[in-house]
Amino acid sequence: MMLDTLKTLLAAYGPTGRENAVAETVKTLLSGKADSFETDVLGNLIVTKKGQSGGKTIMFSAHMDHIGLTVADIEKEGYLRVTNVGGLSADGAKGRHVVFGNGVSGVVVCQPPKGETPGMQHLFVDIGVESKEEALKMVQLGDVCVFAPDFFLLGEHRAASPAMDDRSACALLCELVMQAENPKNTIVAVFSTQEEVGTRGATVAAYRVAPDLGVGIDVTAWGDTPEVKLPAVELGKGAAVKFMDRSMIATPAVRDALIAAAEKANAPYQREVLPFGGTDGAAIQHSRGGVPAGTLSIPCRYVHSACEVIDLRDLDSGLAILKTFVNLDF
Ligand SMILES: [Zn+2]
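# zinc ion complex -> structure
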């Protein structure tokens, strides 16, 4: 069930570059539901579910990694100086509970000198020690912490968590693999790495998979809070079919096939024009000699904060669209 799959994936530790615990979680969830599992050099998990003869190979990509802070120095009092891995701002991180892979907790503090604009250089993580020696027994330079896992429902249909970007899409892709029975086209579900630093995992995976077409699955931004009006995407109105962002202009045939699938499945959907950002869909599209590709987006408020909010009905819409999409004729 989607909600259980989502909660399981949200709980896994997986900052950018250290996604293996998420990959193991996906493997456990999909055990017995796919034809093959491969892990490549970049750590991408590539799951194949064979389609019927004559079908095409469709690569889907949802990234496993989650933005974090890495230890860049340790002060003599034991405070950790950090720098961001992926698009995490000092403002978004301050005052938050973070955890390392070994379970060590910390509190992020931002203390700029008087008159200075707060920046990453003013952040430190307090892990409750009194000296550098004590700190070194718990963490090392290069270790990465992420917002502590959390999950709670908001109202009837919505849910908040630090890692909705992009575990919500990983959940959607897992459910597609679980639920697609004897699909017409072969599903290659890539659970990708290092998206948050520039779609690095998907770039390599797309080259290896060499699909006939591709679809990135990622969260997108929102336009339905008081001061934010673009993109013109609302929570609860269905998954969004991307027309463009700063990394890609969706291939018309793939974009229109996603829309056709939504209409055939009677699933609500939105059109998305995002004036910033990029996703794995672009990495697929720009691989080898070029691959027809698009992106299906999950509307998400407060992206890259510790409280990313999605509407669970948009996941249902996304799943209905993808289940139909894999059975279209291409
Ligand atoms: Zn993302």
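# post-check
The chain has a mean pLDDT of 96.
Residues 63, 165-166, 195, 218-219 surround zinc ion (CB under 6 Å).
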